[in-house]
Amino acid sequence: MQKRIAVIYGDGIGREVITQALKILKVVAKKYGHTFVFEEVLAGGAAIDACGECLPAESLKICKESDSVLLGAVGGPKWDNEPSHNRPEKALLTLRKELGLFANIRPATLLPQLRKASPLKDEILNLGIDFIIVRELIGGVYFGEHKLEEINGEKVASDAMTYSASQIESIAKVAFNIARNRKKEIVCVDKANVLSSSRLWREVVDKVAQNYKDVNLSYMYVDNAAMQICRAPSQFDVILTENMFGDILSDEASIITGTIGVIPSASLSNGTLGMYEPIHGSAPDIAGQDKANPIGTILSAAMMLELSFGLTKESEAIQLAVQNALDKGYRTGDMMSAGIQLVGCEQMGDVILESVM
Ligand code: IPM
Ligand code: MG
Q1: Domain 1-111+259-356 belongs to what architecture?
Q2: What residues does the record give for site: Important for catalysis (predicted)?
């Protein structure tokens, strides 16, 4: 199989973590007889530095023409004063929108090796954590009208949370299809006691559910969901939610499994094109120090192989190699606990690589 992969190193720890994932993808390609052609694409702060624009037209073009996109992270304090249309994060949002990546899949699974890194008590962890957040990614308040006006001599700002029925229907179908292959439980998280967009979500999701009678659907307000994720996370199988709620809850979901550093994500379109990225950010405080955890990116690459290319065996080999590295006791700083071997980003990549070979 031959695939063209656009690679966005991005900012902060982006380059370090992507380097480890590419190293592993190259070995997997060789071992299983595939050709992956990697094409570096500038986006985010790195692109602002190089050419003044957070997402040059050429970068977007290459991503559109590729079979998938692998991204490290964008953003950092250096670009905090850029105007909103040219912030590094804007590159990410434009990519999501332009590539039609409406479905963001973020798993939260407690690996037995990382139990000690979780802030939750044993009695909660004993029940297990294994759920998936299905986050709508190109609607809601991120893409509604943003306004800054002057009213009666005072500045007034607003960001509209806008959803159309068809947007909700598309993401709901993705969640129901995923739930069908799992425990068949969906919790749709919203704020229907306050927001009219949430009430439309309920109306549309109810309708979609008619075609998935085998899946059990319930609703939960987002404030309660935030509490339940740390109080009793074992109750969740698939969480379906809108863009901003998904952003917030997925950070919470990641930390209860030990560290945000190991959580991958897939952003999917209607076709096979997807963008894959760890959910941690650019972590400028540890950038360039070989301290970052490459596992989130490596597992994102594994998701890419499975979801965009249908290479299930290869994807499983990478996931197994990650487990092996953890079994052997290797940890980056973010998942340290007593009696365990501290390694840097590169060495963690090496240990995983050995297992894939
Ligand atoms: C994420 C990030 C992005 C988001 C930022 C960087 C714009 O937090 O992917 O979760 O809010 O979607
Ligand atoms: Mg986020």
Answers
A1: 3-Layer(aba) Sandwich (3.40)
A2: 142, 191
Which pLDDT band holds residue 338 (cuts at 50, 70, 90)?
A: confident
89 is an annotated ligand-binding site residue: yes
User: How many CB atoms neighbour CB 142 within 10 A?
Assistant: 20
- Catalytic residue (one of 64, 116, 173, 191): 191
- Looking at domain 119-257, which of 3.40.1190.20, 3.40.718.10, 2.60.40.2700, 3.30.70.1290 is its CATH number? 3.40.718.10
Nearest Cα residue to 68 out of 271, 320, 299: 271
Can you tell me which atom of ligand 1 is nearest the CA of 104?
9
- pTM, whole model, 2 decimals? 0.95
Domain boundaries, the chain: 1-111+259-356, 119-257
Q: Compute φ and ψ for 134, nearest 5 degrees.
A: -105, 105
The strand ranges marked E within 183-222 are 185-190, 216-221
Find all residues with CB under 8 Å of 284, minimum gap 6, and list them. 11, 12, 76, 77, 78
